[in-house]
Write a structure and sequence with these properties.
The structure holds 2 protein chains of 2 kinds.
Chain A (H helix, E strand, L loop, with lengths): L4 E9 L6 H10 L5 E2 L12 E2 L13 H17 L10 E7 L3 E2 L1 H8 L8 H6 L2 E2 L2 H10 L7 E3 L5 H14 L5 E9 L3 H9 L28 E10 H6 L6 E10 L12 H14 L8 E3 L8 H13 L8 E2 L2 H4 L6 H15 L1 E2 L22 E2 L4 E8 L3 E9 H6 L2
Parallel strand pairs in A: 4-7, 4-8, 11-12, 11-15
Antiparallel strand pairs in A: 1-9, 1-10, 2-3, 5-6, 8-9, 10-16, 13-14, 15-16
Chain B lengths: L22 H17 L10 E7 L6 H9 L2 E2 L2 E2 L1 H6 L9 H5 L3 H10 L5 E4 L3 H17 L4 E8 L4 H9 L12 E8 L1 H6 L6 E10 L12 E5 L12 H11 L4 E8 L4 E9 L2
Parallel strand pairs in B: 1-4, 1-5
Antiparallel strand pairs in B: 2-3, 5-6, 7-10, 8-9, 9-10
Helix pairs in contact in B: 1-5
The chains are: A alpha/beta, B alpha+beta.
């Protein structure tokens, strides 16, 4: 027996918003969070811009993504518990999480024979902060007693985390799940690593105009950082405890390209499979999807292939759907991208809008769909598909139903 | 398995991908190749109906990869961002990123053996292997896939992983850390029977418990046990469970094998396998 899965809490820490209302406001206003990097001196790195989160989020360890995750989770639980009792039973965590933070400064210290011999906290984070610690901090903070699911499927990890948690609630394997993603690669090795791969935009003089999904002038992605968290629970249990569902997660699919290490399958096979599987999982026809939140990295290879995948799955209906690329506003949050973009898709759907794809001034002819250029648009939506495609051929898609449509379904 | 040599070239569909592969990728491809051969499965039989469930150890960095970066990023004894960005970062091997990312073993296995189905890629220890097994079992039970490749790989004989394990309580000596990769092929029973495959073992029971804890102040030693066949000495990270099964089959063991682990991250798990002669 499959259960409906309600979304009862949302939390977000993004470059253009420290919480969900701020984030929604920025999305609809087309307000970018991309600026010159301030957290360290980027000196003469080829890329010196990013979607940095402003403000400080306290965390037990000096790894920014831990603080982002704890704050986004706090918001999600606060919203979920604002009405009625708290979710009960055995809760779990499904988290897309970024790479271990590796400190060059600590390495230099070790090299010079001045290794840390301080507290257990200092020893544990000296030179390298293991990413799995983030999951344990979250589980501890919210007494989540099911074994945490950690996803390291690169840029698809956030969507995979939502999907795996969704299946656990739907199939009765968990009573509730905190799902989401968190990441920050805005550090010397992270910025330099992507720059060395020529993956990031070098439009340093115009930070807000640098992330240009589907535009002819795109020159790579812009790194972002942040976290997105959602609380999932069985629909009936949510209503019974007095919660107000914010929407419903109805389908998930993922796939492996089994093709190239850094380029997508030329016929968009993997991306199309992930979307088709998500639709099948939801029991929906392609024509029932009202809008898409695209992966939209603004890399030369990704955007046309993503467009091709949408054509393959949706046929004629591809022309009828607005498609938004959140990365145009906040950059690429890597392992957090799918989760933050799911939050964006859901809150925009519930508001009756689709947010714009910023900087889409001159569409690439190979990207021939309606990407909502520059300005937000009113658009009633029942279902939105949100997709993520990761380096190494990991593809994931989820389908969300808005609050109004979900409540109308009883 | 711990292969005597780590050259997966014979398993690669494109030899051009060899340069992108680090030790953890070599281990994953060799382990998957061995398991698939034993199962009598070829890439043609996999495709959309095969899923991949992988757990990879802590991120590896070899000293020789990072030292040139450091050497060109110091101002006196201190790290200098100016020197790093002016040239230090360019001293890193251009393919270093590919060779240490935790999702790359999954990529190489999927690309070389045509695995297009659902996946779950996790990190960093044997506790997460149990969550991967649970995901694999759920996918098989759902009927979305017929075949699941479940594998664990750990590249641990490098300076960063050794550094990590020297800090945990109690510390692990570098020479107790092994590089290891192991893979099992799980199939829906009807599918295996339909293709005339010989079942080598059956997963009878899998249990997991987790205690939320303070990751800083509540470190506990890892305890791993097995009955039926002995665990190998030393730490094999996420490869340990499947290495145990490999040993049971290699030694011709028949009967029950039970693996139990209490991990540093407060996961307690047990799996019970019926190994067939």
């Amino acid at each position: 027996m499959k259960r409906r899965v309600a979304i009862t809490g949302l939390g977000v820490v993004a470059p253009n918003g420290a919480n969900v209302p701020e984030f929604l406001d920025a999305l609809l206003a087309g307000r970018s969070g991309i600026r010159a990097v301030r957290s360290f001196d980027t000196a003469s790195l080829p890329t010196r811009i990013a979607g940095e989160v402003r403000g400080h989020y306290g965390a037990p360890l000096p790894d920014r993504k831990i603080g982002f995750a704890l704050e986004a989770a706090r918001q999600a639980f606060a919203q979920a518990c604002a009405f009625g009792s708290a979710p009960s039973g055995r809760g779990g965590l499904s988290l897309g999480v970024g790479l271990e933070l590796f400190s060059m400064a600590d390495l230099a210290q070790q090299h010079s024979g001045r290794a840390s011999s301080g507290s257990s906290l200092e020893r544990l984070s000296f030179m390298q902060t293991p990413s799995d610690l983030c999951a344990h901090f979250l589980s501890h903070a919210h007494s989540l007693s099911a074994p945490p699911l950690l996803h390291v499927s690169a840029c698809a990890a956030g969507s995979d985390a939502l999907g795996a948690g969704f299946r656990r609630v739907r199939d009765g394997r968990a009573d509730f799940m905190l799902v989401g993603g968190t990441d920050s690669m805005i550090n010397p090795l992270g910025m330099a690593g992507f720059a060395a791969l020529n993956a990031t935009s070098t439009r340093n003089a115009e930070p807000e105009r640098a992330s240009r999904p589907f535009d002819r002038g795109r020159d790579g992605f812009v790194l972002g950082e942040g976290a997105g968290m959602l609380l999932l629970e069985p629909w009936q249990a949510a209503l019974a405890r007095g919660a107000q569902p914010l929407g419903e997660l109805v389908g998930y699919g993922n796939s492996l390209d089994a093709h190239g290490i850094s380029e997508p399958h030329p016929e968009a096979r993997g991306a199309a499979q992930a979307m088709s599987r998500a639709l099948a999982d939801a029991g929906l026809a392609p024509t029932q999807i009202s809008a898409i939140n695209a992966h939209g990295t603004a890399t030369p290879k990704n955007d046309p292939i993503e467009t091709l995948a949408i054509h393959r799955v949706f046929g004629q209906h591809a022309w009828n759907m607005p498609i938004s690329a959140t990365k145009s506003l906040i950059g690429h949050l890597i392992s957090a991208a799918g989760a933050v973009e799911a939050v964006a898709a859901l809150v925009c759907m519930n508001a009756g809008w689709v947010h714009p794809t910023l900087n889409l001034d001159d569409a690439d002819p190979a990207c021939d769909l309606d990407y909502v250029p520059r300005v937000a648009r009113r658009h009633a939506q029942d279902y939105v598909l949100s997709a993520s495609y990761g380096f190494g051929g990991h593809n994931a898609a989820i389908v969300l139903r808005g609050a109004e449509a979900a409540l109308a379904a009883g | 398995m711990d292969p005597p040599t780590l050259d997966p070239s014979a398993c690669l569909r494109s030899k051009k991908t060899r340069k992108f592969m680090g030790t953890q990728d070599d281990l994953a491809v060799l382990a998957a190749a061995g398991a698939l051969a034993q199962a009598g499965l070829t890439a043609e039989a996999l495709g959309e109906r095969a899923g991949l469930f992988a757990v990879v150890g802590y991120i590896p960095f070899n000293r020789e990869d990072i030292d040139p970066v450091l050497a060109n990023s110091l101002e006196g004894e201190h790290f200098s961002m100016a020197r790093f960005s002016a040239g230090g970062f360019q001293r890193a091997h251009p393919l270093l990123t590919f060779r240490c990312l935790p999702n790359m073993p999954a990529f190489h296995v999927s690309a070389n053996f045509n695995v297009q189905g659902p996946y779950f890629v996790s990190y960093p220890g044997v506790g997460q292997v149990y969550t991967a097994l649970e995901e694999a079992r759920a996918e098989l039970d759902s009927g979305r896939i017929d075949i699941a490749l479940a594998f664990g790989v750990a590249h641990q004989r490098n300076f960063l992983v050794q550094h990590h394990f020297s800090r945990v309580e109690p510390p692990e000596a570098p020479d107790t850390l092994w590089d290891a990769g192991a893979c099992v092929i799980l199939e829906r029973a009807e599918y295996a029977a339909g293709r005339g495959a010989r079942a080598r073992a059956e997963l009878v029971e899998l249990t997991q418990r987790y205690t939320p804890h303070s990751a800083i102040s509540e470190q506990t030693p890892q305890r791993e046990q097995a009955t039926g066949v002995p665990l190998r000495e030393g730490a094999r990270g996420p490869a340990s469970l499947f290495t145990l099964l490999f040993d049971a089959l290699a030694k011709g063991h028949s009967g029950e094998v039970v693996h139990t682990v209490d991990t540093r991250d407060h996961l307690s798990a047990q799996s019970r396998w019926r190994v067939l002669s």
